[in-house]
Amino acid sequence: MSDETYTMKEAMLYSQRIAQLSKALWKAVEKDWQQWIKPYDLNINEHHILWISYHLKGASISDVARFGVMHVSTAFNFSKKLEERGLLKFSKRDDDKRNTYVELTEKGTELILLMYDHYYDTHHSILEGSLALKELYGRFPEFLDVMAVIRNIYGEDFIEIFERSFKNFKESLVEEADTVSVKR
Amino acid sequence: MSDETYTMKEAMLYSQRIAQLSKALWKAVEKDWQQWIKPYDLNINEHHILWISYHLKGASISDVARFGVMHVSTAFNFSKKLEERGLLKFSKRDDDKRNTYVELTEKGTELILLMYDHYYDTHHSILEGSLALKELYGRFPEFLDVMAVIRNIYGEDFIEIFERSFKNFKESLVEEADTVSVKR
Question: Which one of the record's GO molecular function terms can you name (chains A, B) (predicted)?
Answer without folding.
Answer: DNA binding
